[in-house]
Design brief:
It contains 3 helices and no strands. It is mostly helical and 89 residues long. The radius of gyration is 16 Å and the shape is elongated. Helix 1 runs antiparallel to helix 2 and helix 2 runs antiparallel to helix 3.
Length: 89
Amino acid sequence: MAQEGLLVSAFYLLVFTAMLIIYRVVRGPTLPDRIVGLNAITTKVVVIIAVLSVLQQEYYLIDLAIVLLMVNAVGGLILAKYMERRGND
């Protein structure tokens, strides 16, 4: 029972910190700041999905979290390549 309370607390903490990072994504000031903020939010969402899957005992959601993590990684690489090309012009 104590583990469940800890997981619920972790869930709320992750949601709260993700909401704080939204400020960085919206306000910037630069494109790299926004990309890093979006990457951090996506990573937090992956952890939130994993915590919820354990709380609900629906472990197939971990597969969804893994796919989202892979999409996040590929998206980050694509955005980094875009920024690199944009800097050379």
